[in-house]
Amino acid sequence: MRIAVLTGGGDCPGLNGAIKWVTKTALDSLLEKKRSVKFDVIGIKDGWRGLVEVDPTSSESLARHTLKLDEEIVRTWDRYGGTNLGTSRTNPFNPKKDTSEKVMENIAKLGIDVIVAIGGEDTLGVASKLYRRGVKVVGIPKTIDGDLVGTDYSLGFDSAVNVIMEEIDRLRTTAGSHNRIFVVETMGRHAGWLALHGGECSGAYIILIPEYPFDMQRVCALLEERRGREIQYSIIVVSEGATMTVHQEFCKDD
Prior knowledge:
The chain is of the alpha/beta class. The chain has helices at 15-27, 29-34, 48-53, 59-65, 100-109, 121-132, 157-178, 193-202, 216-228; strands at 2-7, 40-44, 66-69, 114-119, 136-141, 181-186, 206-208, 234-239.
């Protein structure tokens, strides 16, 4: 049985580790004795783009777009960030240029029985559509936004929260020294998990997320109230998708 592994979308810590352990588990000699099927594993380079562009009849194209994986090749991969297979944001089901039939054709020509797709909404969305066409797929969630339905843990989220926490801890001393209000923006277009957890871990005073539109006058009132308690600085964490309930003027020229 041939397993194909690919990574799509943005990179994050943990991708190489996931590739390594998919490979090691599939090729484990002890487990192999208990199975009736023998596995081999290939990596698809540059995500779904690799399956679109590969020419299975060309050895040069195969070398450019695929990589045969074994335990020796992936032995040290988990020591490094990013993805050694490369990644892309190619979507074979893009209505402007649908290449899904080419992907289906190449899956058959490469003799792929199962695809392990590591990615977020877009990457796993493609995997889901291929599944509906009869392709066997396994999805490993990867998103720093933490916005994939039906999963409590995804590669990248914990690392991103820790980076936010560390950066805010560094900013706090400067904010306190200069009696300033610092606004820290995080990723998260439609989901505020990153801002929420990063803000909570770092003790931010105000956290604004897309799920709950905010009243700017209320935010200003909270900041004024805090100054009234002689706390002269504040940290506000804002998710990139946060919006106001209504457009309000909150900054006036002197």
